[in-house]
Automatic annotation (TrEMBL):
Protein name per Swiss-Prot or TrEMBL: Aminoglycoside phosphotransferase domain-containing protein
Residues in Aminoglycoside phosphotransferase domain copies: 8-171
Species annotation: Penicillium bovifimosum
Highest taxon above the source species: Eukaryota
Pfam families: APH
Length: 273
């Protein structure tokens, strides 16, 4: 959070003091930080009991637009290596090892190879392909849980007042930059083929709506990139079916077990190299 405060205008809580272990006068790890106004978007306007954990439709355009601006801002913060965001003894910021994978990594290829080595279900070493089209750094900062339970909003307006819960923030390959969790959708290759028509469009009306909103979100990101004088790497990643398939795989296969049609995903990624 201090790194973000020092490098952009993204609204995050100011940290006043912290201790990461129990070797301090109060004998417990603690953090004292600013209280942001509003409530998390998940709890606004009556919370789950009223709107089932979803953003009310009338507030989505404004909320999505402001979230897109935040998305552009934190992915514009980049470091030369891939890893967990840490603070060194000199007070500077750098990347450390990622839990369960290792690192930090100088290239996206090195990260993907380490990820493949740590996977529960994996192919032989010769089948690990070069997945990244942006192999070298700098690499973007990513929020580990970019969900509306971690986005603060005005109770009646859904204006974004801050982003919280940066535990686990790290830099990642561009292919792992995905939509906010409330716009997550399975890649077609992960899902049952009979759920889609001949043109690849889903039969499910709710999924069609999510696809439409994802397209609108990409346009909002493009506008924010232009307003912030940023490059178009974020919107390009969100527009890429290949990148989004990789990002989805990373989340799915980080869990215990195997989800989806694994072989179909691999074939899709190989065919689009």
């Amino acid at each position: 959070m201090q790194f973000i405060k020092e490098n952009c205008s993204l609204p995050v809580p100011q940290v006043f003091a912290y201790e990461s272990d129990e070797d301090n006068p109060v004998k417990i790890a603690y953090i004292l930080m600013e209280l942001l106004p509003g409530s998390v978007a998940l709890d606004a306007l009556g919370g789950y009991e009223v709107h089932g954990g979803e953003i009310p439709k009338r507030h989505r355009p404004n909320f999505y637009r402001l979230v897109a601006k935040c998305h552009v801002q934190f992915t514009s913060l980049r470091l030369p290596k891939i890893g967990l965001m840490t603070r060194n003894s000199e007070g500077g910021f750098e990347c450390g090892p990622l839990p369960g994978i290792g690192g930090p990594f100088d290239t996206a290829t090195a990260f993907f190879e380490a990820w493949a080595d740590s996977a529960k279900f994996k192919w032989d070493k010769e089948s690990v392909t070069r997945l990244s089209l942006c192999d070298g750094g700098p690499f973007p900062l990513d929020h580990d849980d970019f969900h509306h339970c971690n986005i603060m909003v005005g109770e009646n307006t859904f204006d974004v007042t801050g982003i919280i819960d940066w535990d686990g923030a790290c830099t990642v390959p561009w292919e792992l930059i995905a939509f906010p969790d409330f716009l997550t959708a399975q890649p077609v290759s992960f899902d049952l083929p009979q759920k889609y028509d001949r043109d690849g469009q889903p039969f499910d009306e709710e999924l069609r709506e999510t696809w439409r909103e994802r397209g609108e979100y990409i346009e909002m990101v493009k506008l924010a990139e232009s307003e912030e004088s940023q490059d178009s790497l974020l919107s390009s990643c969100l527009s890429s079916k290949r990148s989004q398939a990789i990002a989805y795989c990373y989340g799915a296969y980080s869990c215990v077990g195997k989800l989806g049609f694994y072989d179909r995903v691999i074939k899709e990624l190989e065919s689009e190299r």
